[in-house]
Specification:
Elements (H helix, E strand, L loop, with lengths): L1 E5 L5 E2 L15 E5 L7 H4 L31 E3 L4 H4 L3 E6 L9 H14 L4 E5 L3 H13 L2 E7 L5 H9 L3 E5 L3 H13 L4 E2 L5 H7 L1 H10 L4 E5 L4 H15 L8 E7 L4 H8 L25 H10 L3 E5 L1 H15 L5 H15 L8 E6 L7 H7 L11 H15 L1
Parallel strand pairs: 5-13, 6-7, 6-9, 7-8, 10-11, 10-13, 11-12
Antiparallel strand pairs: 1-2, 1-3, 4-5
């Protein structure tokens, strides 16, 4: 029903293969249906609103054991207080920070770990700036497989590192960037030492594409989907999911995609603006948004193709714009997201100001991770604390009365 296929040379491999990069040309692989699955929205909607509601659209072998923590089914929140500020009447935030480990990575991980279990691999591994490490560690624990994490020293949020430690991962800290860590993972994979669970693994994409199934399941096809971009796996997965839905007759039109990068880590934005065939990678990316602090995105080809095919755009936003968007969403809508997620809101604001997004468009901004993933950034940049020292209840009540007068 499906095969693993190289996106470059079109070589095909059986689903039981452990390859994650094409052994013939070293390019990325993806899972492709050989036969259109028979499924309807009515059948899908008869099941619980979780990722595996869409089982027929995720072509893992039928006898594979599904390793799940009830991921997916995350809130699609319609904004009510920020619409005037953003200048768009209908905006939704797809809050994937509500997944079991607090980020969208769980979508890809449930599928990739299920395949790792099916393939009987003894050790799974990833390079990570945080969210992937937390997800790999949790799902590997669920599957009874040992996880190994390679992180760039001093470049991972403590909340995410704590999760990987808690779930019992073996952690190797290295000098250098995420891209150095990923290079180690790829070479270790080529030697057969580990089974990699970064987004070079085609099964990760199969899980991550379900975010768009859920969006369409609830509000039909929006005009725009705005996505934070780091390693570019998520935006690639979203476009793959959309193309498949249209091919299977489950939707009849496609939205436009907007990919948003942080200004200090924006090789794909530059490539898009200048019409380059291949991005000029960045050796030392810099941004407060650690989850997308990536200078050499491995999914660059798929991401640029997705943007161009969707007649979409790629733009960058500054760290200041990211922090402001994070604060606005938290204080006006009660939605707490990590800095990388806030790029989608900052990007929406900029795209509206530039007239690219129309005020009457229906827009969905993907929020990839929870605010608690990176509490240090919130405490350092977003919080003004007024402290009162009181000696007794009467003093406390007096101060409260003054505060209420000022507030009114």
């Amino acid at each position: 029903m499906a095969v693993i296929k190289c996106i470059n040379c079109s070589s095909e491999f059986d689903l039981s293969s452990k390859v994650v990069l094409c052994p013939k040309c070293n390019n990325l692989l993806q899972v492709e249906f050989k036969k259109i699955p028979r499924v309807s929205w009515s059948v899908l909607r008869s099941r619980p609103f979780r990722l595996w509601r869409y089982r027929e659209l995720i072509p893992i072998p039928k006898d594979a054991q599904i390793i799940s923590l009830n991921e997916g089914g995350t809130p699609l929140i319609k904004l009510v207080n920020l619409v005037k500020e953003l200048g768009v009447k209908e905006v939704y935030v797809k809050f994937d920070g509500a997944n079991p480990t607090g980020s969208f990575k769980d979508r890809g991980m449930t599928v990739a770990i299920s395949m790792a279990k099916y393939l009987r691999v003894p050790l799974v591994a990833c390079a990570s700036t945080g969210n992937t490490s937390a997800s790999v560690a949790a799902y590997a624990a669920r599957a009874g497989i040992k996880p190994l994490i390679i992180i760039p020293k001093g470049k991972i949020a403590r909340g995410k590192l704590a999760q990987a430690i808690l779930h019992g991962a073996i952690i190797i800290s290295i000098k250098g960037s995420f891209d150095t860590a990923l290079e180690i993972i790829i070479k270790a994979s080529e030697k057969g030492l580990i089974y990699p669970l970064n987004s070079i693994n085609p099964w990760r994409i199969e899980g991550q594409k379900t975010v768009v199934y859920e969006i369409i399941d609830e509000i039909n096809v929006p005009d725009w989907i705005i996505v934070p971009v780091g390693n570019a796996g998520n935006i690639s997965a979203i476009w793959k999911g959309l193309i498949e839905l249209k091919k299977f007759g489950l939707i009849n039109k496609l939205p436009r995609l907007a990919g948003i990068q942080a200004s200090g880590a924006a090789p794909l934005v530059k490539a898009f603006r200048e019409g380059l065939e291949k991005p000029e990678f960045i050796d030392d990316p810099k941004t407060i948004a650690s989850a997308i602090r990536i200078g050499k995105p491995v999914n660059w080809f798929r991401a640029l193709k997705a943007i161009r095919d969707s007649k979409g755009v790629m733009i960058d936003v500054t760290d200041e714009e990211i922090l402001e968007a994070q604060k606005l969403l938290a204080r006006y809508e009660g939605i707490g997201i990590e800095p990388a997620s806030a790029t989608s809101i900052a990007g929406l604001k900029k795209l509206r100001e530039e007239g690219i997004i129309d005020p009457n468009d229906k827009v969905v901004a993907i929020a990839t991770g929870h605010a608690l993933k990176d509490p240090d950034t919130a405490l350092l940049h977003n919080v003004t604390i007024t402290t009162y020292e009181v000696g007794n209840i009467d003093e406390a009540l007096s101060i409260l009365e003054k505060i209420i007068q000022i507030t009114n």
